[in-house]
Amino acid sequence: MGGKVLIVATSATKLLDGRDTGCWVEEVASPYLLWTEKGLQVDIASISGGAIPWDEASTSGDFYTAEAKKFMEDDKIRSLIEQTRSVKDVLAGGVDQYDAVFLPGGHGIVFDGNNSDLKALLEKFWNDGKVVSAVCHGPAGLVYAKDASGDSILKGKQVAGFSNTEEVAVGKEKAVPFLLEDRIKELGADYKKDGDWTPFAVASGKLVTGQNPQSSKKVAELVAGILKV
User: Fold this and answer.
1) Going by fewer Cβ within 10 Å, which terminus of the chain is more open, N or C?
2) What is the CATH number of the domain that holds 168?
3) How confident is the model over 101-119, as pLDDT tens digits?
4) Owning domain of residue 205
């Protein structure tokens, strides 16, 4: 069985304190490469459309992984990430063709959760029984989405996401509108984590989440398993 996944990246570029932010390359690259290698079709969209803004920290040093380099140096992929469709356009065209949606992190996505188009997109996927997945700060994009009964889609689920200690370690705990670990717990989810910077992901029904950039491949593997590829 094959399938089709929609990746939705942030379009946000600034933290509360004015520092630059964006999407984290590794968190798009590893899932994209794993899924396409397994025969899944993958589309990449962003909140506002156009070129995805990248967090510069994700394109240097140890954070710029082999998968990230392969992804960014592929001409075909570059054309996809420089000309993404907006979430509004994706919704207008319908999402019945997709089996899963995935939100990569980077601090930018923390500012996107209350976007009405993203909220509508996620609720459509969730209430149609499709896979909803996210990694690192990506679960921040899920915090406003509701199920058919009006509860958070995170309520009662096991959920991973960037931890408070990891946020403090990168010095951005005061530069985001909320701490993700705290918000996940406030929504009635069972927050799960491993040690800082340790790969960790959890599937709770058709909700798949991971803790940090190191967890992107684990999330992708869990999604592929649910889609039976």
Assistant:
1) N
2) 3.40.50.880
3) 999 999 999 999 899 999 9
4) 4-226
